[in-house]
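Page 37, continued from 36.
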């Protein structure tokens, strides 16, 4: 007999079944099994439909359909019950005395589970076919096996105890009544109380999103609850409508507020201050995903000695990068005339492409950089992503190219960009495992003992992390000797002491990689529940009340307060956006 399915795998199968269950099937409308399935299947199905488990689930399902009326889209709960009934029925009608793997050979009593595994029972297939009493006894055994597989803990999968469901229904009904009276705060309190009892009921998340969406200033909370609903039930018939509602909520939450901030910025008396403020507004538009509005704002900025328009375009491109839209960032780059800004942006684009896993494209982007310092450090950043991905050979080649570029830089610059570039590259080489090349690169640093010592310290830390503690101490001793040539030793000695401490206590390399920025919860179904710090901030809970607390003594202070508020809203939008991307990734959208 094959091993039973794991519960998580069964849940996955149910999820697949749910996605196709949009109307009540014919088998759920009659107690008579189809004769075409053979005598054992007919008997198993008949016994199945007489079990308390099946009868109770079917009654619950019919009750949901009756309550939901003639126009039935199928609530999450009803469709989950339907999926369980469907899985029971499919298993029952698979019962047979014909071996599906060898229909011409030995006949056995068997059934096929949802994963395709054939489960065999120790029974006389001939007696089952010929003797109704034996067939009834065998069918009861197969039926009990099916039920035990589906309900191993004796409970209905995804269902609640009757007393709990009654409590949920009563609390939800209070919420519905409050919502009809437009008392949305009371409705939300009741829905939240119901969710404490039934945290897996996605329909509660939907109702929370709906109620929150009716309160001005709570758009982000509505978006998060709707997201939780879609994460739990991505194949819902409501999905397209909800996604459009989320788009409208984002528009309402951000666009109107950014437009207000821009209007105030345009009223500034000082031209330079006005242009500087509009640079920040363009950044907000781009981060909110509205590039058209961002460029419209950019068009209202005049170039001055601070290159405001170029700064605005760079911010727009950086925001596009943050959204992962590399093509848009490259298009924006073509609108920038300042060579230094373009090179810096190309480096950022290359790093983002490498982080996204496209190293070939990243290196192609690096090739377009003209400034040697920017180009060499871009090589280092790409190599870092190659190292993190385990492509050490590729990383070492990229770093070697970076060293060649750095060697071509002039020596007489202030600050010493050549030394800084080689310091970065030496660390990259050490982290990629080539300590010898790292030391050669560090030894070639000229005219900057600060960078030379720092490079040696970083190499020593890499040696220690690679368990070469003796080599690390020798390299660290050289780094300490170099410090004697530095007039102001405060900063470099502080760095030396920190590295030495990490080597001594065995935590070398612990500060190299900062955790990637991510959504507050990695489980989409728990976003709204776990991210209370996000959802309960004053800006999200009561925007109007929050705005009433802002300073009003000076126009400049008012604008800055509104700008800071808008930035907080954009950050919240970014976090929710990451949640949706994670959800799409998990569901292959």
């Amino acid at each position: 007999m094959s091993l039973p399915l794991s519960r998580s795998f069964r849940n996955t199968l149910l999820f697949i079944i749910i996605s196709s269950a949009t109307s009540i099937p014919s088998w759920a409308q009659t107690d008579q099994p189809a004769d075409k399935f053979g005598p054992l299947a007919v008997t198993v199905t008949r016994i199945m439909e007489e079990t308390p488990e099946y009868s109770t689930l079917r009654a619950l399902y019919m009750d949901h359909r009756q309550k939901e009326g003639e126009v039935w889209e199928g609530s999450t709960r009803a469709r989950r019950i339907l999926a369980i009934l469907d899985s029971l029925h499919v298993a029952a009608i698979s019962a047979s005395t014909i071996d599906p793997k060898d229909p011409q050979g030995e006949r056995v009593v068997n059934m096929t589970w949802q994963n395709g595994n054939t489960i065999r029972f120790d029974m006389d297939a001939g007696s089952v076919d010929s003797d109704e009493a034996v067939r009834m006894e065998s069918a009861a055994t197969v039926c009990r096996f099916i039920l035990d597989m589906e309900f191993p803990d004796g409970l209905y999968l995804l269902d609640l105890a009757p007393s709990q469901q009654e409590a949920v229904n009563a609390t939800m009904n209070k919420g519905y009544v409050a919502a009809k009276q437009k008392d949305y705060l009371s409705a939300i309190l009741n829905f939240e109380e119901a969710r404490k009892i039934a945290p897996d009921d996605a329909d509660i998340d939907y109702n929370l999103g709906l109620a929150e969406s009716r309160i001005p200033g709570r758009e982000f909370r509505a978006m998060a609850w709707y997201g939780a609903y879609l994460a739990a039930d991505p194949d819902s018939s409501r999905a397209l409508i909800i996604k459009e509602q989320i788009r409208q909520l984002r528009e309402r939450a951000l666009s109107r507020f950014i437009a207000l901030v821009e209007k105030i910025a345009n009223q500034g008396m000082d031209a330079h201050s006005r242009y500087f403020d509009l640079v920040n507004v363009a950044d907000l538009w781009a981060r909110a995903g509205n590039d058209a509005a961002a460029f419209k704002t950019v068009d209202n900025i005049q170039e001055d000695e601070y290159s405001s328009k170029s700064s605005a375009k760079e911010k727009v491109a950086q925001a596009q990068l943050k959204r992962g839209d590399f093509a848009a960032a490259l298009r924006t780059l073509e609108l920038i005339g300042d060579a230094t800004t373009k090179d810096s942006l190309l480096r950022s684009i290359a790093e983002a492409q490498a982080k996204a896993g496209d190293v070939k494209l990243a290196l192609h982007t690096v090739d377009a950089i003209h400034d040697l310092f920017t180009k060499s450090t871009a090589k280092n950043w790409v190599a870092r992503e190659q190292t993190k991905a385990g492509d050490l050979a590729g990383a070492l080649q990229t770093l070697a190219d970076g060293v060649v570029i750095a060697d071509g830089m002039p020596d007489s610059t202030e600050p010493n960009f050549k030394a800084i570039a080689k310091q970065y590259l030496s660390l990259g080489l050490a982290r990629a495992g080539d300590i010898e090349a790292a030391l050669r690169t560090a030894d070639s640093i000229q005219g900057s003992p600060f960078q030379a010592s720092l490079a040696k310290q970083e190499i020593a830390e890499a040696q220690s992390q690679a368990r070469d503690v003796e080599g690390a101490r020798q390299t660290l001793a050289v780094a300490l000797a170099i410090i004697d040539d530095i007039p102001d030793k405060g900063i470099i000695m502080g760095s030396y002491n920190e590295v030495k401490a990490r080597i001594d206590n065995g935590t070398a390399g612990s500060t190299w990689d900062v955790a990637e920025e991510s959504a507050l919860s990695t489980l989409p179904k728990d976003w709204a529940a776990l991210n209370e710090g996000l959802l309960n901030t004053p800006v999200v809970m009561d925007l109007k009340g929050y705005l009433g607390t802002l300073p009003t003594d000076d126009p400049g202070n008012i604008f800055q307060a509104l700008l800071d508020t808008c930035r907080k809203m954009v950050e919240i939008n970014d976090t929710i956006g990451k949640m949706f991307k994670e959800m799409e990734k998990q569901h292959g959208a």
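Strands lie at 109-112, 118-121. Flag for discussion at group meeting. The two ends are 37 Å apart (CA to CA).
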